[in-house]
Amino acid sequence: MLVAKKPRDMEAPVATEQPKPRAISKRAKNNAVEALASTLDANFFKAIAEPVRQQIVLILLQEGRSNVQEVAQHLVQDRSVVSRHLAFLEQAGFVRSHRVQRFTEYELDGPAIIGKLELLLSHLRHAAQVCCPPDQLR
C-alpha cells in the first residue's frame, strides 16, 4: 500500500524552547511606578477635561495670543467665567499670560504642554516595560 507523503510545509511545527523571562525586581517596579506617579498631574488633565476649557484651547490655537474679551467672543459664557477658565488653564500649565497695557493676553504654552506629555509618555513606556512586559500578558 502506498502512502502519500505530506509536503514539508504541512508538517507539525517543532516546538522550540523560549527563553524564560527575566524576573523584574520589586524595587524596579516601585521606581517605575513612583516616576510615573510623579508625572500624573491631576490639574493638568482636569484642565482639559472640561469642555469649555477644551474650546478655549482650540480658540487659542486658532486665534493665537488673545485677551479674555477676545476669547469670550467665541463662547456663550460670561467674560468672568472665561477669565476663571483661563486662570485654571494657566495654573495647570496650558497657557501663559502677558500683561499688555490694561489687558492680560493669554497664549498656549506649547513647549510646556509637549514637555509634560513627553515626560508622561516616557515614564508610561518604562512602567509598562517593567510592570507588565508583553510576555507576562499572555
Automatic annotation (TrEMBL):
Biased composition (Basic and acidic residues): 1-11
Keywords noted in UniProt: DNA-binding, Transcription, Transcription regulation
CDD domains assigned to the protein according to its UniProt record, in alphabetical order: HTH_ARSR
Gene Ontology MF, one: DNA binding
SUPFAM superfamilies in UniProt: Winged helix' DNA-binding domain
Domain HTH arsR-type: 33-128
Domain of life where this protein originates: Bacteria
UniProt cross-references to InterPro entries, sorted A to Z: ArsR-like_HTH (IPR011991), HTH_ArsR_DNA-bd_dom (IPR001845), HTH_MetalResp_TranReg (IPR051081), WH-like_DNA-bd_sf (IPR036388), WH_DNA-bd_sf (IPR036390)
NCBIfam families: HTH_metalloreg (NF033788)
Name of protein: Transcriptional regulator
The organism of origin for this protein: Pelomonas aquatica
Lineage: Bacteria, Pseudomonadati, Pseudomonadota, Betaproteobacteria, Burkholderiales
